[in-house]
Amino acid sequence: MYYKQVDKRYRETMGKFLRKHFRYNTMNSWNRSTSYANNIKLHNVDKPADIDNDTWWEMLWITDWQNQLSNLLEDFGRKYSFQWQVGINGRSGGYVVLYKGGIKPSGYKSYCTHCGQKNYQAIAEGEIGICGRCDAKARVNFKQAHMQVFTWPGKSVDEYEDFEDWTLSALRERVELIQDFDRLCDDITAAYIDLCRNYRVTEEEIFVPKTIKVLEPV
Ligand SMILES: [Zn+2]
Predict the structure, then answer these.
(1) How many angstroms does the Cα of residue 217 sit away from the middle of ligand 1?
(2) CA of 130 to the centre of ligand 1 (A)
(3) What is the whole-number distance in angstroms between the Cα of residue 106 and the centre of ligand 1?
(4) How many Å lie between the centroid of ligand 1 and the Cα of residue 118?
(5) Is there a contact between 33 and 170 (Cβ–Cβ < 8 Å)?
(6) Element (H, E) at 192
(7) Which of 25-60 are b and which e, b meaning 16 or more Cβ less than 10 Å from the residue's Cβ?
(8) 96 pairs with which residues across the strands?
(9) What's the gap in Å between 137 CA and the centre of ligand 1?
(10) pTM of the full predicted structure?
(11) pLDDT tens digits, 168-177
(12) Model confidence over 61-104: pLDDT tens digits?
């Protein structure tokens, strides 16, 4: 369990919780910026006895798991309007790290309703929007400014902070954010265990189309 209860009546308990929380690099070790993190390397999580070893190790590389993981991370970001985001870092992807970020206008003015291709050019009044990718006459202007999510991967969070001059409400808000982050790490672990318990990894052969060059008589 990563989630811990914190007595939010006292400045001391909150400050201690934040200062003692596990941290990890936001980028790499030479960048030297760190943020709140949790180590979710699987060998540090107690494997439930009813899950066999192969499944426990193999499930990590399965697309279904990776999709489920990115959905969990995205939900967290959306909840905080992407001002706070969670990412995976570390050589073996074993650390969950809290990042600062936000949303800003992407600059895209129109998009193709047929293939989804976005375009920086707006369509003028009376003009027919043609898609640059699929040639469909289906390019239309975005009704609202199109936004994109950005992350500051190198930015540290509360790295040298002693929280001395923070108001009680600011401290509470930060503690609640970190508790929510810890809860997310518990959810990630629980989702992984759930997947391992209910599915097994099998192999399936797929055929991938490939373009090759051939000789044709002239
Ligand atoms: Zn198109």
Answers:
(1) 35
(2) 8
(3) 19
(4) 8
(5) no
(6) helix 168-198
(7) bbeeeeeebbbbbbebebeeeeeeeebeeebbeebe
(8) 38, 88
(9) 8
(10) 0.83
(11) 999 999 999 9
(12) 899 999 999 999 999 999 999 999 999 988 777 899 999 999 99
